[in-house]
Amino acid sequence: MNLEDAILTVFILMAALLYSSVGHGGASGYLAAMALLGIAPDVMRPTALALNILVSAVATVKYLRVGAFSWHLFWPFALASMPFAYLGGALTLPGHVYKPLVGVVLIYAAWRSFYSAHRISDLVGHRPHLSILLVAGACLGFLSGLTGVGGGIFLSPLLLLFRWASVKVISGIAAAFILVNSIAGFLGVITSSPALPTALPYWAVAAVLGGFVGAEFGSKRLGNPTIQKLLAVVLVVAGAKMIATA
Asked: Which UniProt keywords apply (predicted)?
C-alpha cells in the first residue's frame, strides 16, 4: 500500500466514524477524500458505494438494537428508491458531467453538516401521505445511484424539515435507507464492470472499524458539533476541486 492509499485509509476511517454517528454511511466523505487525492471518477463511485454498504449495515444494526427506527416511514422510501438507485447506478456519466454533479452534492453535504451541528427541534409532526413518500424515495434513489452516495444526506434533511420523526429515529431510518440504496446502486454500477482499487480491502477494514465506533456512540448520543463543522470545510474544498477540474 503506497502513501496515497495509506492517507486515504485514515480519511475513510475518520469519515466512517463521524457519519455513522448520525446514521449515515459516509459516501460524501469518501468521495471528498478521493476527490482531494485525485482518484479517477470511474473508481470513486463503486468504491464509495461499497464502503457505504459496510458502514450503513453496521449503523443499521446499532440503531435497530436501541429501537431508533420506524418501519412505517422506512418501507415506502425503500420500496420506491431501490429500483431507481439501480437505474442510476447503471448509468455512466462522462467525467465533465460527473465531477461538477458530485461537486455540487459535496457542497450541499457541507451545508447540511454545518447546519446539523446546531441544535435541532425534536418535535414530531404528522406522517405524510404514502404517495409523497414513494415519489421522494424514487427521486432520492436515482440521485443516490447516479452520484455514488447512499441518499442519507438528502433523506435526513427531508425528514427533519417536515418533522416526520425524532432525530434519533431519523438516524436509524437513514442508515437502513442508505444500506438498501447502496446495495442497489452498487449492483447497477457493476453491470459496467468498473475497476475497483487494489487498496479497497484496507479501506473496507477502516470503514467498518470507524462505522462500528461511530454507530455505537451515535446510537446513544448525537455527534460532536465542532467535528461536523470541520467536516463541512473539507467537503467544500473537495466539492470546489471537483467543479474546478471538470
From this structure: Cell membrane, Membrane, Transmembrane, Transmembrane helix
